[in-house]
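User: I'm writing a tutorial on reading structure tokens. Could you give me a worked example: one chain, its sequence, then its tokens, then a sentence or two explaining what the tokens reveal?
Assistant: Sure. Here is the example chain.
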Amino acid sequence: MALSKCCISGFNWDGKPTGKEIELAGFNTYVTGSNKEAAVLYIHDIFGWTFTNARLLADHYANEAGVTVYIPDFFSGEVVTPETLDSPEKQAAFDFGAFLGRHGKDKRGPEIFAAAKALKQNIGYKKLGAIGFCYGGWGTLQLAGKGNNLIDAAIIAHPGMLEESEIDAISVPIQIIAPENDFTYSQELKDYSNKVIPTLGVEYDYQYFPGLEHGFATRGDPNNLVQKKGLERAKNAAVHWLQQHLGV
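And here are its predicted structure tokens:
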């Protein structure tokens, strides 16, 4: 199965993550922050829980929103790095269909719910948010579904693998970070979201980023002025949303 270049390309950010690695509900997990009442479950993209950019972004959320952020490994130790996909030859050789077969919704969905339950019920966070990028978007929406009662707010950024039924079921405040050019979060899905979500009785914040493409919020180039502004705006919007809905 062919894989769109913008899903697997990106810019590695400078910096050293400041969190630590722990075990959460049996998952290797990166954790950053010290708030004992408000936490965020970060559901990673194709580059997984070890991706430096993801950890740096989690550090920003922890420091600026005042929450504790957890990034569990939802790929069972499989590591895909930008370096393993940094040429057309490597990208062509990557079997995305097989990858999704190993990490499909039926397998990873229960694990995502287990991690959320561990944070909310076992550790006992009073407030829990979820944020998902690309691959992590569908898992975040499932957590936000009616009757789950696990999270208090959700954010999805250039989300992948969404179904209309998952949008229909949203029951918590939701923020969407939507680049103009996105093969996974198509214009049809954008239009559907903007038609349906305002009817669901939840707070809704749609952040549109003209000229930017799928992956920008976690893999944009900070040396490119347009991408840098997009990165900063997306990060700031997420921080504000977390502050607003997690009570910190």
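What the tokens reveal: Residues 5-246 form a domain with the Rossmann fold fold (CATH 3.40.50.1820). The CA atoms of residues 222 and 229 lie 8 Å apart.
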